[in-house]
Amino acid sequence: MVKSVKKFKREREKISSPFQKEVMAAWNRGFSAGAREQNKQDTELMLEWLGKLEEIQGIAEKTAWKIREHYLEFMREKRERNEQ
Predict the structure, then answer these.
(1) How far, in Å, CA of 68 to CA of 73, rounded?
(2) Which domain does 26 fall in, by range?
(3) What is the C-alpha radius of gyration for the chain, rounded to an integer number of angstroms?
(4) CB 16, CB 33: distance < 8 Å
């Protein structure tokens, strides 16, 4: 999701707009706010799912924590790559 948003922004910057600069600035603010809200919702959904891992048959507490740690480490690495 984040990768497609960044790609869309890069492509959008290449296109000259026939709109007034104020209109494009407002559109960009709205787009950014929507992207932030979608990211927030995606994160909340994933955290809710990670909180219910023990409900899956065959996954005990120890395995659930390993999955959570793996996911958090993956997200940390991904964030570090995006910040570079």
Answers:
(1) 9
(2) 19-51
(3) 18
(4) no
* Beta carbons within 8 Å of 61's beta carbon, 6+ residues apart: 54
Is the same domain home to 84 and 72?
yes
Classify each residue of 57-82 as buried b or exposed e, where b means 16 or more C-beta atoms within 10 Å of its C-beta: eeeeeeebeeeeeeeeeeeeeeeeee
Backbone angles phi, psi at 74, to 5 degrees: -60, -45
Domain annotation covers residue 10: no
- pLDDT per position as a tens digit, 4-35: 767 776 676 666 566 678 888 888 999 999 99
- The model carries a pTM of 0.57
Other residues' Cβ atoms within 10 Å of the Cβ of residue 51: 11
